[in-house]
Amino acid sequence: MRAVAVYPGKRLVKLIERPEPYITAPSQVKVRMLEVGVCGTDKELCAFVFGTPPPGSDHFILGHESLGEVREVGAGVQDLLPGDLVVGTVRLPCSDTACDACRTDHQDFCATGQYPEHGIRNLDGFMAEYVVEEREYLHVVPASLRQVGVLVEPLTIAEKAWQEAVRIQDRLPWKPSGRKALVLGAGAVGLLGAMKLVAEGLETFVYSQMPAPNPSSAIVESIGATYLSSQEVPVSEMARLVGRIDLVYEALGAAQLAFDVMKRLAPNGLFVFTGVPRAESLEAFDTYKVVENLVLKNQAIVGVVNSGRQSFADAIRDLGIFHQRWTGVVERIITGRFPMEEFMGPVMGRVDGIKNVIRIGEGK
Ligand code: BGC
Hints:
Layout: E1 2-7, E2 12-17, E3 28-38, H1 40-46, E4 60-61, E5 65-73, E6 85-88, H2 100-103, E7 117-118, E8 122-123, E9 130-134, E10 138-141, H3 152-169, E11 180-184, H4 188-199, E12 203-208, H5 215-222, E13 226-229, H6 235-242, E14 245-250, H7 255-262, E15 265-273, H8 287-296, E16 300-303, H9 309-325, E17 334-339, H10 344-347, E18 355-359
Parallel strand pairs: 7-8, 11-12, 11-14, 12-13, 14-15, 15-16, 17-18
Antiparallel strand pairs: 1-2, 1-4, 3-5, 3-9, 3-18, 5-6, 6-10
The structure holds beta-D-glucopyranose.
């Protein structure tokens, strides 16, 4: 079978031939991959910024945003049938018996840092024609979501952020009304986050670099949120227009802008980081102001990483809701579909668009 592989030592990314994997335990499932999305993490893996092959190998298969179709199930798998659509979990539990998070099925909160991740760290990813995975790490997607199911994994980021935001803001001894949210970044993670926030009833603003109109700003407007360009509207003016920034959902991976915005967070507000900051030189920033605000305004800051079971369940449910509510809009997040031989453009960041997807198979 064909697969896209990263060789960190040789600084090489290429299409390779691999023997097709087969089921070796009754709890396993063989999946025909249909589509795999490309994100910022993949681009960094292909620039060799990070990424670790499985032990004993000099390469790993790329890809963690998957959509596949069940081909074959192990003798112990009772609840999946060939043809069912599935999405794989990215991060799997570490093996430390003392890791409470991993031992209780919450590897997204792994405390040892020893977790493996498909297509990123110590495990092959999903950019291959076939994958064999344990049943418990596959999430069933309804057939009606065939065209957008590859967005489940990026949506899990917003779902985890929302779960955490609800828990953290539960600290407030009253129920806040008229809440407003600010999304930083209008890539796929930002747009899916904006959809989640609008669906949860928050007045939502999306702040991103590119001036409108552009494909992202059109999506933002179609879901009833407001798009503001940081090239046209400086942070201070943005804060004035929004009025009260109760919740920031950061989906940029750009630390400087995040800290500038943090100074404008409303009293009792919450700032959620989802992006791993890319190397950038930070201007001196006003730590004093940030800490003073945290204390005097009862603010909270949290970072979240996805891969929890609940987040996948919520993402699959909500993708269906978004799909019905904003007919034709969710599809517009996927701006390019490329055959496997043309994987290079998207993974090297040479093609534009919101979400580029590698098309691996058609399914039955
Ligand atoms: C994935 C996460 C992963 C992270 C690592 C993200 O793109 O969605 O599951 O932990 O990359 O950098």
